[in-house]
Amino acid sequence: MLTHPQFDPILFSLGPIAVRWYGLMYVVAFVTFLMLTKLRVKRGFGGDMTVNDVDDLLLYGVLGVILGGRLGYILFYKAGFYFSHPMEIFKVWEGGMSFHGGFLGVLLAVAFFCWRRKKRWIEVMDLIAPSVPVGLAAGRMGNFINGELPGRPTDVPWGMWFPQVDREPLARHPSQLYQFALEGLLLFVLLWWFASKKRPAGAVSAAFLIGYGVFRFIAEFGRQPDDFLGLLAMGLSMGQWLSLPMIVIGAAMMAWAYRK
């Protein structure tokens, strides 16, 4: 059995200001998104999007990720608690972000950006989709560094004890690393390859929906369900139930794109 390295969640401090690893992962996510998306624009993707448009789009995306991720966690996972303790909603430093909520937030933020700039929404979504998985990988690495969101108990040789979660040694799946590899690195490689050629409008976005939905669904089998939710209908977790619509919508969208 392996033991979690027990990283200090604070990378360094400057007086009263503490720079945390998790915050650094968000910076990595946004910077890589900017670099990769600008590269795609220079290669002729994204319709009439320009490099300067990408800079502006990032601001909309950051707001969508943060607001959507927080609201998604509140509504999808702990609605009863937060409605009873509304002031806890603002304590984002204590954790509580949902990918699916952040995803919906980004969809709305990009739609608002496109409405203001008179851009075609589906073209912009196809442009940015391949740049997203690297940011997801950074976020999962932040989870691993913090020792949060560990996996289910296991007897596999690479099972890991997370002292932050279990006082007594207990091997768990390092599910953060599973998600890092599947939803981050592998999804990035597949999407970047798929989007390297011109595809029908909506096809790249559909590939992202299908890919993320499938990989998240698989990774959830190793991830420990939230204590306050447990497993839901059919023995599936909340993450799996939220991923199923992504797969279905992505498949329908892919069929529509190629049919069109």
TrEMBL record:
GO molecular function, one term: phosphatidylglycerol-prolipoprotein diacylglyceryl transferase activity
Keyword Iron-sulfur listed: no
GO cellular component, one term: plasma membrane
EC class name: transferase
Entry keyword set: Cell membrane, Lipoprotein, Membrane, Transferase, Transmembrane, Transmembrane helix
Cellular compartments annotated: Cell membrane
Lipid bilayer topology: Multi-pass membrane protein
UniProt: a 1,2-diacyl-sn-glycero-3-phospho-(1'-sn-glycerol) binding residues: 140
A Pfam family matched in the record: LGT
NCBIfam families recorded: lgt (TIGR00544)
Known role: Catalyzes the transfer of the diacylglyceryl group from phosphatidylglycerol to the sulfhydryl group of the N-terminal cysteine of a prolipoprotein, the first step in the formation of mature lipoproteins.
Family: Belongs to the Lgt family.
Protein name: Phosphatidylglycerol--prolipoprotein diacylglyceryl transferase
Organism: Usitatibacter rugosus
Name of the gene: lgt
